[in-house]
Amino acid sequence: METLYRRIEPGIDPFDPDNLLVISRGLLTGSVAPSSSRIHINALSPLSGLIGSSNVGGYIGFRMYSLGVHSIIITGWSEYETIIDLGALYDLTDPEALMYLSNLCNILGMDTISTGSVIAFAMELFQRGILTPEDTGGIELNWGDAQAMEAVIRQIAQREGLGDVLALGVKRAAESIGRGAEKYAYHVKGVELYGGDPRGMMGVALAYAVSMRGGDFTSVYPVPEFRYTAEQAEQEFGTRDVVDFTATSGKGAMVKKCMIVSSIIDSLGLCKVPALSIIGDFSLEMEASLIQAITGLDISPEALYLIGERIVHMEKIFNIRRGSNPDDDSLPDLFLKSPIEKGPAQGRKVDLAPMVQEFYQNMGWDENGRPTQNILQKFDLRE
Q1: Which residue, 218, 259, 215, is CA-closest to 45?
Q2: Which of 66, 76, 270, 283 is buried most deeply by CB count within 10 Å?
Q3: Which residues pair with 365 in a beta bridge?
Q4: Shared-domain flag, residues 269 and 303
């Protein structure tokens, strides 16, 4: 993140050769630390025009560690959760077809979340008559039709026909199609949402809205909302409302902590699932102990937390430089205005504005989501 913060100027376009693709290993990547195979990838995102990032496991982090390479910076490039996004979104119930489509996306180098979301978007437009067989090249975009889905996936990969438009992502595809398509383009900051409906849990809704890279869960990881006990929530955040899915109070403080801790876990090159999902420990005590044991660095959990906080402020400043404003920290109208029609969360919709303001306040930002001078001075940053 530091590299992008210092080197990407405000006027650079995501497809400009001056954009950077930064592949970095964490401090503990390749070490004996459990689940330490992770690398972090950052760039200016073509979807959002803001910070774009991904965190992946595999062998590359260990190879970088063994060669003494911390980061690989690539210039002059162009960029391009499966059961939900390639299954439930389409009413596709055939598991073999689902696995085939997932593997096809992987072979073609296509993200299954964005691919699934953009094809579901096209199917909804087709069902509503906004798209016609003439627009789709004769493909009948009916729910649950795996053959139609495969055809559109291949169109997107080859930038042919409707696929050339859908390859832009739901936000820009909707702008290109027009005819009211924008109403059905479900995204945050231009990035398609994960499969979970945020109306079910207010903390998750806030996380989607304020995530620096768009409609995303993993860069915030707000699992205390459904992982903590009421007693833990009260002790750590001062209110049991944190674990009340319907409550809005306390969610700003929770999302702040989760976002900061998540940034540290990513920076160390560790997988979040063991520490944050399985153990449910956001204290950073285990991580501080691992650092001391493996590297000899004596660093406290509190110091780690401050480093993570600086990363989050840096990401926010990067996005502000790119033109991000408070309107970007929002959700599609569907989730704000239309209650869920059935299921355990029936009747719920998201009361987002007070949670966003609570989050800003907890971060030390003003009412427009800009870091204050006190924050800039404390962390040696500048807008």
Answers
A1: 215
A2: 270
A3: 371
A4: yes
Report the candidate in 181, 107, 103, 97 with the shortest Cα–Cα distance to residue 145.
Answer: 97
268 neighbors 28 (Cβ within 8 angstroms):
yes
Q: Is the model's pLDDT at 78 over the cut of 90? A: no
One domain for residues 233 and 304 = yes
In a domain, 383, yes or no: no
Range of the domain at 368: 198-378
For the chain, the average pLDDT equals: 91
Distance CA 278, CA 275 (A): 6
In the block, tokens 């499969």 appear at 195
Q: Are residues 210 and 241 in the same domain?
A: yes
Q: Are residues 300 and 251 in the same domain?
A: yes
Tell me: do 70 and 88 sit in the same domain: no
- The domain that contains 144 carries what CATH number? 1.10.569.10
CA distances from 73 to 10, 16, 76, 77, 270 (A): 19, 15, 10, 11, 21
CATH of the domain at 316: 1.10.599.10
Predicted structure pTM score: 0.88
Residues 126 and 139: their CA atoms lie apart, in Å, by 10
Q: Is residue 371 part of a domain?
A: yes
Question: 23, 50, 75: which is the final residue of a domain?
Answer: 75
Question: Which residues, in sequence order, are CB contacts of 95 under 8 Å at separation 6+?
Answer: none
Question: What pLDDT digit, counting tens, does each position of 196-205 carry?
Answer: 889 999 999 9
Over residues 139-154, the pLDDT tens digits come to 999 988 899 999 999 9
Residue 267 is encoded by which pair of tokens?
């920076």
